[in-house]
Design brief:
Methylamine Dehydrogenase, Chain H; four-stranded antiparallel beta sheet; 33 strands
Length: 452
């Protein structure tokens, strides 16, 4: 039955697209994607090697107090004016956000959708843009606390398929890639569809835009460069396929200073690609070379970048690489279960064994580590606050958020607990965003909460 559905899906989507006025599909593209001209990637003299992340040392599990004569200094908090893509910026890393810090709920929206909403959120010109599992994109105005527009690209025959959309905004245009293999562009000024293309295989990555190129990857680990104006393919590059699927999705980071794109795929390969001259700089493989591609499962958190320091967090280790050479600078045996925070001088991680850890980002040395539950009331633990799903730095404090709605604040200098409270009685379903000195999240009732 599954085979029949796959065949039917491929046949039915290969020649369908949209009507430009209504958003209902007609002809997928005047030029089929497969026949469009493709520039090749230059693979000459590429440095490629296996990286041994199967470190023999035991996973780090100690609590370490900071040295009395060591004084930590953070990057100054910065105000985020918009939130135009997953993780906010092209480097996937905001070192320290500016926030009013009162932690007071100042507004709650009506229900954004009667269907399940997804964690992907972008903000553009004081409007929230997100979507539900039916594929309906909605626009919610923060100024009037009201939904002002919604749009559904999808035909009724796909109404029973859960839609997963990947969103980003660039130059007043919303770009959307989905798990049906479509990518399309919506003009945010007039809310009209500009173009849409069917690439056949479901997309499975965050998307990045730079120099009028959209970078996205599908579930087969195929990288695309797509023209922002037409949706046509500039070039594509195939990386190793994995047959075992996990929660980890293909992940991109953009280095605009060096004009490089970094791509970590579900097979455990890390590529450095010059998007300026379409040349592969180097390739690293994090999978054990003694195992077959089809049997071992690669797990990781999203990459983060600051200056020339790229941090990779796998289930075996945290690793630091020089982005220009691909040379490993250090490795640390810990399973970071949340996306790390990278500042000018430090890396902050939250590990599987409940340790909040601060590392020197030049050496990988532990400056301090703290088991967060040693400072928590046992009654709170019993209420299941331990399911933390995001860590961030705001106003010089480490913020840990749990899916059940708790916020815990820790001192960045030593890891001491300074505050804990349930800020959302209905839990948290979205990424938590700091923007214009406020904090935003969507709860499990599909309502947008705004804190000052």
């Amino acid at each position: 039955m599954k085979s029949f559905f796959v065949i039917f899906f491929i046949i039915s989507t290969s020649s369908c697209s949209f009507d430009n006025k209504t958003g209902i599909w007609k002809d997928a593209s005047n030029t089929p994607v497969e026949t469009q001209s493709i520039d090749s990637i230059n693979e000459n003299n590429v440095t490629s090697r296996f990286e041994d992340i199967f470190i023999k040392a035991e996973m780090f599990s100690e609590e370490i107090k900071i040295s009395e004569n060591l004084k930590l200094n953070l990057d100054s908090p910065t105000e985020n004016k918009n939130w135009l893509e997953k993780f906010g910026v092209k480097t996937n890393n905001i070192s320290n956000s500016l926030y009013a810090g009162n932690k007071i709920l100042i507004s709650k929206s009506p229900k954004l959708s009667k269907h399940t909403t997804n964690e992907s959120i972008v903000f553009f010109e004081n409007n929230l843009i997100s979507f539900d599992h039916k594929g309906k994109i909605f626009f919610f105005s923060l100024d009037i606390n009201k939904k002002i527009f919604d749009y559904n690209f999808y035909k009724k025959k796909f109404k029973n398929i859960k839609k997963i959309l990947y969103l980003t905004v660039d130059k007043n245009i919303l770009y959307v890639a989905d798990n049906l293999g479509y990518i399309y562009a919506i003009n945010l000024n007039n809310k009209l569809l500009i173009w849409a293309k069917n690439y056949g295989i479901p997309f499975r990555s965050n998307i990045k835009i730079v120099d009028d190129q959209i970078f996205a990857a599908n579930q087969d680990n195929l990288i695309y460069s797509i023209d922002t104006k037409t949706g046509n393919k500039n070039w594509s590059f195939s990386t190793s396929l994995t047959f075992l699927k996990s929660d980890f999705k293909n992940n991109f980071v953009v280095d605009e200073i060096n004009k490089n794109l970094y791509f970590l795929n579900t097979s455990g390969e890390l590529y450095s690609i010059s998007y300026d001259n379409k040349k592969i700089n180097w390739v690293l493989n994090f999978k054990n070379s003694t195992l077959t591609d089809n049997t071992d499962l690669f797990l990781s958190q999203p990459m983060v970048l600051k200056k020339n320091n790229l941090i990779i967090s796998t289930e075996k280790a945290l690793l630091s690489f020089n982005v220009l050479t691909g040379v490993r600078q250090w490795s640390f045996p810990s399973n970071s279960i949340l996306k790390p925070i990278l500042t000018k001088n430090y890396v902050y991680i939250f590990s599987k064994n409940d340790l909040l850890i601060c590392l020197d980002n030049k050496t990988g040395k532990v400056l301090w580590s703290k088991n967060i539950y040693n400072n928590l009331d046992k009654d709170l633990i019993k209420k299941n606050i331990n399911n933390f799903h995001q860590v961030g730095l705001a106003n010089n404090q480490i913020n840990l958020f749990s899916k059940s709605g708790y916020l815990a604040l820790f001192n960045y200098k030593n890891g001491n607990l300074e505050y804990i409270k349930k800020i959302s009685k209905n839990g948290i379903s979205s990424e938590i965003i700091f923007m214009k000195k406020n904090m935003f999240l969507i709860d499990n009732k599909n309502k947008l909460l705004k804190f000052n």
